[in-house]
Amino acid sequence: MMENTTDPQNISNTLQLQQANSKPANEPDHFLTIRLLMQGKEVGSIIGKRGDNIKAIREESGARINISDGTTPERIVTMVGTIETLSKAFGMICQKFEDDLKQTCTTIPPITLRLVVPASQCGSIIGKGGAKIKEIRETTGASVQVASEMLPTSTERAVTISGKLDSIESCFRQICQIMLEQSPPKGETIPYRPKMMISPVHAPIIFANGQAYQVQGQFAIPLPPNELNAFGPLTPLAPGVPVSAAAPLLPNGLPPNRPPLQTQREITIANDLIGCIIGRGGQKISEIRQASGANIKIADLDEGSQDRHVTISGTPEQIQLAEFLIHSRIASEIGGILITH
K Homology domain: which residues (predicted)? Predict the structure, then answer.
């Protein structure tokens, strides 16, 4: 059977393989490609409202930055440039994460980021007998961990660096220098691509409006009642409190002695992005309401404001899923991803 070379997914796969294994013909030898593995919330932070943050990082650093499809829980942030431009971009990303931490924590915890590195280059980061990685830790003060196993269906490993802002910036620069000296990676590199679907065994299940849903990537998939048996007995709510898999459930999926906790949350969304959430004829917002079971109200635009207030009401689980689906839509729209579903 002949492969469809016009299919967007096939083209995307081919491009990722080419980018991971070679440099474009017009790319200087001192240019380097760095891939960061992030959660959707982290990506949303560096993108910012209307894409202001990512635009500033690109312009001020001079690095080329692309973000992978927003339909997966994990995202790949690809940066291309010299060590100087990459370090500038990385520093701005770290600074944004530190600013976020300052808003939520009284004591600032270490900043942690994950690099995705070809396995053949990881050996150079570790060094003979671990000498190089020990040197990096001692000279920068950062924590560096190289995963012993490759990321699923790839020949890449996760390199986790953690520490204070100046420490991980220095650590990142040293790792970039090592990767540049060992570029291109030896052998064929199969890049890690985050999966759209979570394995059914590990995918979370939520109950909303009498229906069980399995959260898979950006979507909540209705789960037939007979398929719940595949997940085994329910986990006890607390030590010594047994839960029967056959226990009767209320319409919201909770045992009868656990009344649903109704609450609400208000989020703010830029007015020029509200359309991607509502969709044509209200289709998208209707899908989010149905999938999450939450009540979602979008307020009118206040005079002189560029933002819209969105109120999400329901159980904490319903609100969490609704907010996740909303932010996934926004991240995909800002990242320039064409959503066809």
Answer: 30-98, 109-180, 261-331
